[in-house]
Each structure stands twice: as structure tokens, then as C-alpha cells.
Design a protein that fits this description.
Layout (H helix, E strand, L loop, with lengths): L1 H25 L4 E5 H6 L5 H11 L26 H13 L15 E9 L2 E8 L9 E5 L2 E5 L5 E6 L2
Antiparallel strand pairs: 1-6, 2-3, 3-6, 4-5
């Protein structure tokens, strides 16, 4: 009787483990979006982080020669690419945030796209938007503690803070 009972319990336990694992995979992290200035002012980013973000976004030291020497090396982008889990969490957060209201088009999560500019602690830096959105040709800048980020495509950088 004990052998029969254990023979039946093993598959049931394995099934419950598989079901439980599937549920955990569906959960995504939550987070909030901030401008680079807001993230810096709230202590989520350091000046070195902002310098690295500007370097990657501006394609070099352009406009920041006073704060970045010729041999300046930005912090490495680790990870080089976002994991599938973080990618999904970023898109879920963006889709459920108030940001979608700025778009005059109806869109789906699949329409969200971004360029990635590094992860700094719990801060993921992205230029995020929706495929098919109108983009202005206005050139403007964001100045943060003597570091300048130039915007040439009309899309702003946002910082997604995980678990906040």
C-alpha cells in the first residue's frame, strides 16, 4: 500500500511543482518611470551614471568636453541587453502608466519599442516610445550637474526604477 501511495504521490508533486513554476514566470517586476533629472535628484543615479548615459546617448563626449576628459571611459553597459523578464516588465510598466495617454493612436504592448542606455543599480535607462508615433524634429537638451544630454529625435530618455 505504501509503494502504491508513493507511486501516485510523485507524479502529483511533480505536476504541482510545474504548475507553481509557471505561475512565477508570469509575474513581472513593477517599476516607475522618471526623467533623468528626476532620477538624479531623487538619488537613483550618480553624476558618474549621468555622464555615462550622456556619453552613450550623445555618441561620445560631444558638448561635455568640460566634464569628460579625452580619455573618459563610460561605465560599461552591464548587462549589454535587457533580459526577457526585464523587457516584459518595462513594457508592462510603460503600458500601464500614464505615458500611453500622450499618444493619439491606439497601441498594444507589442508596439512599444526602446533603445537601451544601461542599467545603473536598480535604474534602467531607455529612450522609449511607440512604433508609428509622430516624432518632432526639435533639438533640445537636458542639463544635469554640468552634464548635457542632447535630444535630437524628439524622444526623451526615461529611467525605469525597478521595484519602486
Amino acid at each position: 500500500m505504501k509503494k502504491l501511495l508513493s507511486f501516485l504521490l510523485v507524479p502529483v508533486c511533480l505536476l504541482l511543482c510545474a504548475v507553481g513554476c509557471g505561475k512565477n514566470d508570469e509575474k513581472t517586476e513593477e517599476g516607475n518611470f522618471y526623467t533623468v533629472t528626476e532620477a538624479y535628484e531623487n538619488g537613483y543615479l550618480t553624476k558618474e551614471d549621468v555622464m555615462s548615459i550622456a556619453y552613450y546617448h550623445n555618441n561620445g563626449r560631444d558638448g561635455n568636453e568640460a566634464v569628460m576628459s579625452e580619455d573618459y571611459k563610460p561605465l560599461p553597459m552591464i548587462p549589454e541587453r535587457l533580459s526577457t523578464t526585464i523587457d516584459r516588465a518595462v513594457k508592462d510598466s510603460f503600458y500601464s502608466s500614464d505615458f500611453w495617454q500622450q499618444y493619439e493612436i491606439n497601441y498594444r504592448k507589442e508596439d512599444i519599442s526602446y533603445s537601451y542606455y544601461g542599467t545603473y543599480g536598480n535604474s534602467v535607462v531607455l529612450r522609449i516610445g511607440v512604433n508609428g508615433e509622430a516624432v518632432s524634429d526639435n533639438v533640445w537638451e537636458e542639463k544635469i550637474d554640468a552634464v548635457t544630454i542632447y535630444y535630437r529625435s524628439g524622444k526623451r530618455l526615461y529611467v525605469w526604477i525597478r521595484g519602486n
